[in-house]
Amino acid sequence: DVLIDEKVDFSGLMLSSDVLEGLKSAGFERPSPIQLKAIPLGRCGLDLIAQAKSGTGKTCVFSVIALENINLAVTLPQVLVLAPTREIAVQIKDVMCSIGRHLKGLRTHVFIGGMPLEHDKNCLKQCHIAIGSPGRVKHLIESKLLQTTSIRLFILDEADKLLDENFQEQINWIYSTLPTSKQMLALSATYPDHLAERLKNYMKDPTFVRLNAADPALEGIRHYHCVVPAHSLPHKVFHEKIQSLLQLLSKLSFYQCLIFSNYQIRAKNLSETLAKNGWPSTYISGSQGQNERLNAMAKLKEFKCRILISTDLTSRGIDAERVNLVINMDLPRDSETYLHRVGRAGRFGSYGVAINFVADGKEVTSLNEIEASCGVTITSLPDDVSKLLS
Ligand code: ADP
Ligand code: MG
Q: What are the pLDDT digits (tens) for 36-46?
């Protein structure tokens, strides 16, 4: 395994026996590099900015710090975790509960839009760790359902996303309601300049834990492109891409595959065309209801579908272990989104392949730009793709 040092295990990190046992039961035998570095610092109470590529185990970093931090006898929220999407929030809860399984009476709840408020109200009667999306958490604090007086650990997962223009106002507001004295953790796979700048508003003297900061390329992932002829009609180009995709899928031996498009309508059409050609897929989109989205994610995780088609909704943080193929039907709009998308393949040190369909001309130029700014090498597909994933 490329990520794990065989000589160290969690027992050297001064964790409580309950958490140690929990890690073991969750199948976490040895810490990943970011866990090894960040957990002890976080346990010391330092404000941390932890950056490491996707799939390196950042959820476990803050879950352990959170679990070691709570007083089970107090049933008010003591840890508040914010995540940019509902799916990530649910996933964080699963990890917290898994590692925290030996903490008797531990109450961890997820607060996300689309769930009835009455449900949240009940959960908040007893809650140690609150995990949620900024919108719903803000609403719950505003309506005095979520009490913030006991919060002493504030966590931003996917911090770069949470501090972009869409969320910043909500985060500011939530932050202003928290006690002044608290610890704060911010985790991110990328480290854009604006992140440090914005985190300065919240953290006084943060400690940085950055892994492979100089080389954000995702180890274990190979990047390819497939060029289709340019056409003045975008749907013609997309049609060409789909034809190439169908040929590829029949030759590749992948476990599970994520396909991204920038447009909901294209994603939906693609899903239908694939089905007609014998490739059933699941489709996830922001226009779906909460349950539909969670179902789609669950299907992927439980291996009930092999292909998930998505817009950028799932490009962050979603952990699907057996995805080893990511396909971009449309290029992402920026290099960070590229890294987030392809980071879905090759989770935790396994190998994966990313394939980018581009139309000759402008799209090839954009691809070259992404290649340069991500520091990855994107080559053309080999003639024989059958061994690409073996
Ligand atoms: P990140 O947030 O950095 O993108 P995740 O926290 O989602 O990564 O973890 C990625 C995958 O690695 C998950 O499937 C998780 O269960 C697994 N994982 C994390 N830490 C360990 C560990 N110490 N040992 C084994 N598996 C781990
Ligand atoms: Mg994560």
A: 989 999 999 99
Q: Do 355 and 388 touch, CB atoms closer than 8 A? A: no
Nearest ligand 1 atom to alpha carbon 59: 6
Note the ligand closest to the C-alpha atom of 52: 1
Whole-number Å distance between alpha carbons of 80 and 75:
13
Contact assessment for residue 153 and residue 183, using Cβ atoms and an 8 Å cutoff: yes
Amino acid at 48: L
| Ligand 1 atom having least distance to the Cα of 60 | 6
For strands 221-228 and 352-359, give the pairing.
parallel
Distance CA 219, CA 354 (A): 12
List of the chain residues with pLDDT < 70: 1-7, 212-219, 313-319, 346-350
pLDDT at position 347, please? 59
Please, what's the largest Cα pairwise distance for the chain? 66
Task: List the one residue out of 156, 2, 3 whose CA is nearest residue 66.
Answer: 156
CA of 55 to the centre of ligand 1 (A): 6
pLDDT at 5: 55
Ligand 2: distance of its center to the CA of 324 in Å? 17
pTM for this one?
Answer: 0.67
Q: How far is the CA of 5 from the centre of ligand 1 (A)?
A: 15
For residue 24, the model assigns a pLDDT of 95
